[in-house]
Structures are given as C-alpha cells and as structure tokens.
Amino acid sequence: MGARINRWLCTVLACVLCLPALAQPEVPQPGDTLDPLVQRMLDDDLLTAAQRRDAMIFHGQWALLDALTESERLRIAVATCDGSYLRGAGDIAEVLAPHIDGGLDAGDHAALNEALLKIATLYQRTGEPEKATTAADELGHHVSGLPWRVLLARAYVDLGRTEEAIAQLMPLRGLVLADPDALTSAADLSAAAEAVLMLARLEGRPSADFHLANELLSRAHEEADPLYWPAYVTEARLLFEHGNPSQAIEAVSEALALNPNASDAWYLLGTMMTRYFNFDAANRAAEKLYDINPAHPLGDALTVQIALRQKDVAAAQDAVSAGLERYPEMRLLLALDAATQAMSYEPAATAAALEAFETLSPGNPLALFHVGRTLADARQYELAETCLEAAIDLQPGWSTPQLELGQLYMQWGDLGRAAAQLQQAAALDPFHKDITNSLRLAQEMLGYETIETDHFIIRYRSGIDEVLARDMARRLEPMADLFTERFGHTPVAKTQVDLMPDDEHFAVRVTGMPDIWTIAACTGDVIAMTPPRPGPKRAFGTFNWLNVMRHEYTHTVNLGQTHNRVPHWFTEGCAVNMETTGRRWSQYQLLAECYNNDKLFAFDELNWGFIRPTEDYHRPLAYAQSAWIMQYIETAYGWDKAHELLAHFEQGTGEHDAMEQTFGLPVDEFMDAFLEWAGNDVASWGMTGYGKEAELPDIDELLTWLEMRDAGDVELDDAMREHLADPSGLRRLAEHALLGDDIAQAVEALNAYRDARPADPWSHRQLTRIAIEQGQAADAMESMTYLDKIEGDAPEYAVELARVHRRAGRLVEALHFAERAVLREPYNPTYRELVAAVAVQSGDWELGAFHIEALALMEPDRSIHPRRLVVVYTRLERDSDAAEARARAEQLEALE
Description:
- The chain is mostly helical.
- The protein has a 5-stranded mixed beta sheet, sandwiched between helices.
C-alpha cells in the first residue's frame, strides 16, 4: 500500500464539476410527533413509573424527564453520542463509580453488565474503541449477550483487528443457523442480523447471508416487537447498502416515527440523501443531529460528507476540524479528514492522514475507501483507483469499494475493466441493484458499434442511433479544430462519446443509478448523451445535440488543460458561450432583473450558485452570470486573458491571485468594472429598470399621448414622452395594434418595440407570423434568423428559412438552415429529405448521399431511398455501392 500512496504524492489533487442532478427518491418529512402506537404505550396506566421512564428514553423522549438517574444519563449520552459524559474520567472504573454510588450493586451481574455495555458503547461511538474492548476485562467481568459481541466486533474493526472481530461474530452466525428459534427478543434478533451483515462484509460471504439478515430483521419488528426501532435502522442500512434506496427510506422513516431523536436513523437518512444529491434533505438531517447534540460527531461526519459531495472544501475542513477537536480518534472523522485533504490539493497531507489512520487501525480500509470515493467523484481517476484498489486488497469481501471501482472505470471509459470489476462485485453481492445495473450496462456496451475519428471514439447501440453516430463523426472533427484554436489545447486522449439509447441507460452509465434529470454529462475524457428523439424512456425529447456536445466538450478541454483545476464558474461560463445558441430570452430576463435589483452574485459567491443554490433562480443565474463575465473578459480585455487564466489554474494558482495577476487589479475592482459594463449591456437590451416595480399608464392614456405627439402638441411633457419611449409602453401599444385590422400599423408598432427591446423574441414571433400569414415569409427573415438562433431546440424557423432561401435560389444559405433543422431533430425524415434535396440541387452529391443513407437507416422498408442512392452513387461513380443499392431496392419493391 505504501508504494501506491507514494506514487500519487507528487500528483496534484483537484476538484471538478458536480455530477448531473439525480431524480431524488421521495423523502418523508419526519417530525417530532411520535407514532400513535408509541404514544398509547407511554400513556398506558399498566406501566410502572420506572418502565415508563425507560420507554421514554428508548423512544427519544428524554427531554420530558426530570431528576435523571446516573443510569439514565448514561443511556441518553449513548443515544446522543455525547462523549462529554466520559470526559475527565481516568479509567473505566472512574466512569462506573457514579453508578455504584447511585445504587448499582457491584455484585448484580445483569445490572453491571448493562452499565458496562453502555459505557463501552459510548467509548466505541466516540472514537475510543480500545477502551470499549477492555471495559469488561478491567473489572474482571465476563462479557455476555449478543449485543456485547457485536459491540466488540465493531471495536475490533475500528482497531484493524479483523480476525478478532470475526472470532466474536462467528459463534452468533453459527447460533442463528443451528437454532434460529433460540432468538426471541427484538434486541437479540437485531444484533444477530448486525453480526451476520458484518461477517458477510469481513469475509465476503455469499448472498445467502443477505436473506438471513433480512429474515432476522423481519422477525424482530414483525414478531418480537413492532416498536423496536433499531431493527428498522439496521434494515434501512441493509437496503441502502444493497442499492434499494426507496425501501431504505421507508425503513428509516419507520424508525424515526418510533424515535424522532434516533441519531443513527438521522445520520443514515442524511447519508442516503447526500449520495442522491438531495442536499436540502441531507442538511435537515444534519441540523436534526445538532439539535439532538450540538457537538454531535455524526452531525460533523454528515456535514463533511455533504460538503465533499458539493465540492465545498472549506465547509468540509471546518466540520472535520471541529469534529476531530472533540473526538480526535473517531475513525469515521479521521477517514473523512483524509478525504478532505485529498480534495484540498494537499497530497502530502492526505498521505499523512492515511498513514495516521493506518497506525491507529492497521488493515482497516475505511480511510482509503472514503478518499477513493471522494476522488472518484472529483474525476481524479488514477488517484481514486489507487486508493480503491488498496481498500479492496485490505478487505476483499466488502462489495462497496468494488462497486465504486467498477463505476470509476465506467466513467473513465474503460468498459473492459469496468465489466471485470463489476463481475467481482456481483459475485459478492448479486442482489445489489447498482452493481447489477452497472454490470449489465458494461457488458451491453462492450457489444456496441464504434466509429473512430482523429479525436473521437463514438459508441452506439446497433440500430437507429447509427443515424446520429454518423452525424457526430461528420460534425465533431471540425468542432475539435475550432476548440483547439479557441482554447489552445487538444485533449491528449481521444474523447469517448457514448450515445446511450434512452434515459435509464444514460443514468446508469453516468452514476450507476437509473434516474437522472439531464441529457448529457462530461466525466473527463468521456461524454455520455441521450439521443434527441422521442420514444419510450425518453423524457427530454428532441434538442440540438451539437449545441450540447459543444458545451460538454468545453469541459473536457478545460479539465484536460488545467489538470482538473478549472473553477466551476469559469468552465461553465466558457461552455455556455461555446454553445451555438445565443442567449435565450429567459436568460436576458434573469440577468436584467438581478442586475437591476442588485441580486447578481459577488465573485466569491458565484461557485455557490452551482454548489449550494438557496433560491430557485440561483443555479440558472450562476450559468448565465458566468457566461456574462466571460463575455466581458473577451470584450474588454481580449480572449488571450482567458488563456492566461487557464495557465494560472493549471499551475494551481488560487482564483483571486489568478484574476489579479491576469487583469492587474484586485477581484473587487474587476467586478466593479464588470458591473459598470453590464449596466451598459442591459441598456442595450432595452431592459434598464426591467424587473422593478413601476407604474405604467394604461393603454388609453398611451394612445391619447401618441395622438397628441403625432399632432405635434407642444404641451406633451417629458414624462409623457418617456412613457411613450418606454419599451414596456411600446409593447402595450404593439399588443393593442395587433387587435386591430390595420396590419401596417401593427407591423410599425412591432418594429418600434423590437428596436427598443431587441432581446425580446415576442416581436420577432409576431412579425414572423404576420409575414407568413401574408404569404411574405421573406419579409421576416431577420426575425426568423434571430429566433432560430436563440430558440436552439426549435427547428421550425430553420426549416422556413431554408425554404425561403431555396425559393430565392440561395442554395448555400438554404443548405445551412436545412442542416440546422436536422441538428435539432436528426431522426426526422422530413428534414432529412429537405437537406438531401437541397444538397443534390446545389451539386453536393456526397452530402446528398450522406443524408439519403440516413433516410435508409430510419426507414429501412421504403424502396424509394435505395432507388435514390442508385442515382447518387452512379453520379459519384461508386459503382459497387450503386449495385448494392439497386439490389436492395428491388428486394423491397418485391415486398411492396
């Protein structure tokens, strides 16, 4: 392991883009209201006072108790992970002394055993497992009971003493198999299930143990005690670790209904929500843990995991430092500290943290796993591979690192190694949905067709998607040349483009999970994309695929040229500006309104819009404002300054220093200059004051003033003139004119509004509609060209422009717009027909052949397409292709 760690000590660590947004599972909102069954039980007069107090603590209602006994204080400390209960005690005997002073009989075996178990549990939960293992021995007391064995096994695992942990657990598994009916209490059944699950992980036991544990847990809460909430927590953990989040959430919600202050349940819920990018729910869980205990170590651990998942290194550092200050040897916090160091560009500190963890827990893979998973999330594939392989070497029976490594290979684009690794994970855990989903996809993709160009490898499933794959092979090479010129960098490796057949395939490809809310994702040198076509399991329909590819390829280039050090705002700003679509009206509106109301992000807040948006508009604003800043840089300074910034980022220079060194002024002054420029830009859009509350005169007043102005009335004051020139007032006048029968007046009013607020597509749409209705589509070419540009996923304007240009004999322009329509709907045969016809008409027989070939793929049963190919191939002197097309046409004609 040491050699592996040393290998990446010299490599720079960095964070990159967030994952695509997942379709988040439904999350109930657990509150402070107890399940009615629990409340009735607590209110039952048959309970003694002692029984009621005991039940209230078990169900998390300790805040309602007063005059706590020492035993009750200890139980609450265990429930809340309050290690302060142990502080100041020199040894275990000193911790136990208040209990004896409080009336505990040292000769009472059962009571002493219970007190020691609680003390040992608290030691183990707060990072002192060695004291947990000696809690009984120091007083010469013999350990008894299943919970003791499970606790000691946990402590031995924390200490890296795996063989001793297995020795504690083996008898429990043997007991369950030999005489399952011997266990009757919910606590014993739950402990036995925990033992079986731990042993399965430590030894890599077969899947039968999964069923055995599940059966024990079912008996615990269905037969033994339906109110025993810890069984639900164990069941939830079992389900989550086997890729069944929906049922896991149901189980943890059951636990929280029975105990609204169950720390383990809140921590597990927060962990699940973090993995599924539901940060609102995850943060609520962390807040609840801190409500339970303001210094809750599980609250610290969850906060660190949330921050790391969001690439918020500063927040992770704060949380892990606070946790370790209180609990300096808690293994989970130490593992997360190593992961935080890895995300902080601190290889030496990361190695030191891993070595410190190894010293405390030799052979324990927890720290390596968390570092590997975190680096995999950050697309640091080589480093993540090293750590995950080391974790697997230490504990080959643990399927989760195997899954993480398999999915890493998937995102890295190495499908062969992914399939092999996931096969190993499936052998350990054939019921894990993420494993089986990813394995099935990896094996399927190994059989995909490929098209290789100078800079790309395009994978696609045989069938209709060959149409788009062929389009990509034709379009992506010119795109790569443009990006090389723009950014001064060409990716070292060929970019793998995985064209997935539907949303589910895409989601599993990117995350291993079948639900996702996006259409494309860049994972470094791999870009995965769903096809722009309607159909089953296709939520997004059609879109401009080249526009999407340009966005994602920007990330590939920026990540490669900066060794993954590019700031989020910078690469997203570049990516938006590299799209072929102009700024959309919704983005104009958002930027203008935020500018006019002082709601734009400050520089240091910009990344937060991507990482942790607190308002619905924050994420789209982060994209739009980042692109706006990049536009300002190019306009005010020239694009060479963007190259300078990229060079600084590659060297690891911080954002503030990089900006100051590039532009020669502090970031605050840079942003002041940007805002001044932005104000002028907003004015050029006709949107100064847009989004502010303003009273405008009604339409009758506007019309009256308009008549007065046209009559030359000198009494028309400045305020009236201003209202008549206000873009909003002009739109009202245009809307009023559209209601009349005077088309000329309506067009004049629309042109006035268009000139005043050129960014608003409304006037362009109305002018286009009028022109087409009047049979004068050519009169609206300027408006249609604008609409075609900003409404990037709508092909209608491109089609109409192609037809207008074709009628006018401008075949080059007609071909340009016809192909733009095909970019939006590559599977639409009507649009392909148009492109093919214009290409042939203009004499571009190769292009005509290309699109007729696509038509033959889309409509394989129509003889017209091979008949056309005969003509085109003959013209191109491709005689063998023409003969093959003729034979195909004759074959189809015989069937028609």
